[in-house]
Write a structure and sequence with these properties.
With 72 residues, the chain is mainly alpha-helical. The chain contains four helices and two strands. It has one domain. A hairpin with a 4-residue loop joins strand 1 and strand 2. The model has no long low-confidence stretch (mean pLDDT 95).
């Protein structure tokens, strides 16, 4: 089933985190944390946001969107 632009935008709105937000949630220093974050997250240059590579909280559709964005 094809993913709509609205579904992608909803995913980005719900799951995207700024560098500062994700570092604060994980207790990481904002300087030099990129390598640590890349283990579980991917960075979107377009949005300037981090997204989980996978999450048990993702629906099947959300995981599909994350995979698509990560590989774009």
């Amino acid at each position: 089933m094809k993913t709509t632009k609205t579904e992608i935008q909803n995913f980005k709105d719900e799951w995207g985190q700024s560098h500062e937000e994700v570092c604060a949630c994980l207790g990481y220093d904002t300087e030099g944390s990129d390598d640590l974050l890349k283990e579980d997250y991917f960075w979107s240059e377009d949005d300037q946001k981090w997204y989980n590579k996978e999450s048990s909280m993702f629906s099947e559709k959300e995981q599909e969107i994350a995979n698509s964005l990560r590989l774009a």
